[in-house]
Amino acid sequence: ARIPDLPADVTAREVKSVGVIGLGVMGRGIVMAIAAAGIPVVAVGLDDEHVAKAMGAIEKMWGSTVKKGRMSQEQLDRQLALITRSTNVADLGSVDLVIEAVTEDLATKEKVFAELGKATRPGTILASNTSFLNIEKLADASGRAEDVCGMHFFNPANVMRLLENVRAERTDPAVVATIMDFGKRIGKLSVLSGVCDGFIVNRMLSKRSREGFFLVEEGAAPSVVDKAVSGFGFPMGPFALGDLAGLDVQAAARKSRAASASPRELRADFVEQMVAQGNLGQKTGSGWYTYDENRKASHN
Ligand code: 3HC
User: Are 223 and 289 in contact (CB under 8 A)?
Assistant: First the structure.
């Protein structure tokens, strides 16, 4: 079966400290989720500038939670103190679990997994936050396939409860048990998936987006589609969600599925057009909607 069962009779290992490599929108949210659970985390970014930018964003988000009276300043300070800033993969040498959240591009991730395979101890779990790339290839690149798995968080990763853990062909059952247990420890609802297109959630959501694009092609306003779907119980419609996840990420996912896409899907290339214009969604302040600095949306 592609969607595997939970391994029986294996004990989860202890995870005392974690590393996150890649501090974009997803990496930052993952760092926040781990530190908020009281677990030390080494946050590795590309260079000092990226690390400073990510930490600034984290402090701002937690700062606003404090302002809303939902967290104390002491708690914020405690959480910040759990985060070690770094630009060096070698600093991941003593962690028990590394979560990779670099750019969603196979060659980039393969390079990172090759580095992680050398920089970490055997037995250190190497998890990718990829949403559609083939984890088997990352396992090959690492040279330690038994330690490699997926941990797919949802944006915003510090808020969304769901966590899709992915068991690849060669993942050690103890690794699967450990990440399922770890998900629970950081307050997530862990589900287990196999390596397949879009895992469980994005496989469903991509079809919802597809129909959204067709509706727009037929003349519907994106905001009306979003409103209709939100009225049906989803927290966000497909267009607002595309802006949140990043239209560049959505375009890359569409590209990875292009071989099996219908001519109509390929023709409804709104996302590609927006990316070409530099409109990537919330992160650039403009996508299907326009955003102010507090992520408040207005129609384009
Ligand atoms: N980034 C970080 N934090 C955010 C955020 C963002 N873009 N938007 C909201 N938040 C935080 C707020 O700061 C607040 O935190 P606090 O309680 O600590 O102060 C908390 O989320 C709740 O925010 P709001 O009070 O503004 O509440 P809303 O009711 O508007 O909820 C939402 C915002 C949680 C984003 C909600 O709209 C939601 O659940 N949306 C659906 C998101 C979703 O489906 N994500 C999955 C995307 S698919 C994906 O990620 C896959 C990947 O592979 C591409």
Answer: yes
